[in-house]
Amino acid sequence: MSQRLEVNESGTLNTLTTVQKDNYVMVPSATKCGYEKAVDKDSINLSMPNSKTRIGRVGKQVAQTLDTACNQGTLFLNGAWWGVRKLTPRECLRLQDFPDDFLQVVSDSQMYKQAGNSMSVNILEMIFKQIEKAKQKEKRHDTLF
Hints:
The chain is of the alpha+beta class. It contains 3 helices and 7 strands, in the order E-E-E-E-E-E-E-H-H-H.
């Protein structure tokens, strides 16, 4: 039996629909079944909730790519009810490897923009290492012939 998202009285889809018996939340998405399943501690992309073309809105136990608005929340189960909490500016900065003692004297929206416009140094370092490995492998392959 498949679940269907239904249009409410205002003519829109509910952004999140809980299905308690299965312990997941249905997040509208442009998938074959019309939603993605989110469970406790999954991240949810909260931007453009009424979009009919968005897919990949649920990050399975991981944070998704941050944008400058940081419209990302985390799903949590608190007793018998579900909640979605938007990531704080500090959490977004931590995801980008900013140190906790990074002092900010700007607004929250500016901190979200800083996090969204930055790139994690650890990730960038791993990318460069993979590029270097590929170059070394290519050099060894070229010398064999």
